[in-house]
Amino acid sequence: MSTDNTESLDPSAGADDPGFEDAFRQLAEIAERLEAGGLTLAEATARYEQGMKLVQRCNQLLDSAELEITTLRDNYQRAVLPATLSGAEEPPFFDEAPYDDVGDEEESLPF
């Protein structure tokens, strides 16, 4: 049994469903085999179908991870919001670069 934490992100996943890293590795192997050629039409079609199922699995896991990250970010911002209302410093938001002004030649140095 794998100890990959990404498997727990999708509660609808069955015991046979691979985690993201395993699915992505399998997908890469299928792509390499298809690109190498030498497969019969039936073999190539079967591998293509298997690859599409792995793509769907990877997308499900990525969507689940994105939702979890968004939820964590939103919860953090809501938890920090009351402090900003009381006059404290504004909370850092993840989509803002912390050092946007680094490297500006027009700005004079304080020392």
What global shape is seen?
Answer: rod-shaped
Q: CATH first level of the domain at 17-85: which class? A: Mainly Alpha
Order of helices and strands: HH
Q: What's the overall average pLDDT, rounded?
A: 77
CATH architecture of the domain at 17-85: Orthogonal Bundle
Q: Count the strands?
A: 0
The parts where pLDDT drops under 50 for at least 5 residues are 1-11
Strand content: under 5%
Terminal CA distance reads 58 Å
Structure summarized in a few sentences:
By secondary structure, the protein is mainly α. It has a domain at 17-85: Helix Hairpins, CATH 1.10.287. The protein contains 2 helices and no strands.
Main traits of this protein?
Exonuc_VII_ssu_sf; hydrolase; disordered N terminus; 111 residues; exodeoxyribonuclease VII activity; 56% helix; Helix Hairpins; 2 helices; single chain; cytoplasm; Exodeoxyribonuclease 7 small subunit
Describe the structure.
The structure is a single chain. With 111 residues, the chain is mainly alpha-helical. It has a domain at 17-85: Orthogonal Bundle (Helix Hairpins). Helices cover 56% and strands 0% of the residues. It has helices at residues 20-36, 41-85. α1 runs antiparallel to α2. The longest helix has 45 residues, at 41-85. It starts with 19 loop residues before the first helix and ends in a 26-residue tail after the last helix.
Give the SSE layout.
Layout lengths: L19 H17 L4 H45 L26
Helix pairs in contact: 1-2
